[in-house]
Hints:
single chain; TIM Barrel
Amino acid sequence: xxxxxxxxxxxxxxxxxxxxxxxxxxxxxxxxxxxxxxxxxxxxxxxxxxxxxxxxxxxxxxxxxxxxxxxxxxxxxxxxxxxxxxxxxxxxxxxxxxxxxxxxxxxxxxxxxxxxxxxxxxxxxxxxxxxxxxxxxxxxxxxxxxxxxxxxxxxxxxxxxxxxxxxxxxxxxxxxxxxxxxxxxxxxxxxxxxxxxxxxxxxxxxxxxxxxxxxxxxxxxxxxxxxxxxxxxxxxxxxxxxxxxxxxxxxxxxxxxxxxxxxxxxxxxxxxxxxxxxxxxxxxxxxxxxxxxxxxxxxxxxxxxxxxxxxxxxxxxxxxxxxxxxxxxxxxxxxxxxxxxxxxxxxxxxxxxxxxxxxxxxxxxxxxxxxxxxxxxxxxxxxxxxxxxxxxxxxxxxxxxxxxxxxxxxxxxxxxxxxxxxxxxxxxxxxxxxxxxxxxxxxxxxxxxxxxxxxxxxxxxxxxxxx
Length: 467
């Protein structure tokens, strides 16, 4: 097993690639234009009861080091067949030893993270969900705040695709929404302080816009028209397809449109409750290049863009997932294991719990800001360089620069509005292509930084007059 110190700090940092021609990019930072406050649950991840490594002793430290403030349980489609009281999955699905709810909560307590629990809609009942709330928050006093009803329920066969377990005689959106209201009522009767979410389809992705045989509107309009006034948040999942690494790295640009559509639907149907209804992205990842450097760049861009557009949690799929170890390939000099996990777990991979690039890219968010800090507006003159910025509670401003050019470094010229940086040489955190750690140094200036090809840089600056 890889110990925490080896996985995070003991590995040798990647050597910077050979010098190449550097492109010039202008980045503007408007420290006075606020997007959102970083939520405590903003950076999250999924785990599942079939993951024998989910409660490994190294996991709490790995979660904490990456700033994971939320962990979703008991695991994707498994949730719609999982019975928490018996710790079994209907139909004989595999459940790993030592993955029960109380053990999971012990891991989260050690990591300082919050759970997001998916109640069983497919084979469960409102009473089963209410009993789970009672056990968690009354009996055990865990204070579990976030609950969702079902996983990707629209995949129950209503629109043709049938991967989600659903034993209800009707699979329609109307049936889900009607039952959802019963779940919300039963669960909040036990603990009125919890937040309960509804499953939506991702705008622009299948089966968005399709009207099922049992409905008069598509899934999202139907669910929100019936249950919008009763829920606390709307749930979407996002796994953008891509034809190349360069194409994958453009996908975060689609997020403002997706988030805007979800917010518009909430405003249309939630009535006076609309301002209180949040957006949760309880599954996110790429569909290609998942264990290689493109995903290391994609991950922080995805997390931060969603938070900038109002999501209170973005939960990566997954902590461990595994690979069938077939059809392995090489992408940008590293092995693509076809694994959705942030940490290694398959026999053909590095030692268990070895982080993949998406882990380090996500960990770079901890260098940019912390829960309670403010995400502010930035702009880049190049489509090959993404930027994000945070104004910290103490007045400092930090900027993340993501160079999506696999061959050329970027010379970045930074300009500020609403903030005047000290002239002192800033602290700079870097994650390099195919690296196994994050390095820190004093380099460049507040107005000029060089970001290596396929690298991520976070520049931390104090205001004028501050040491």
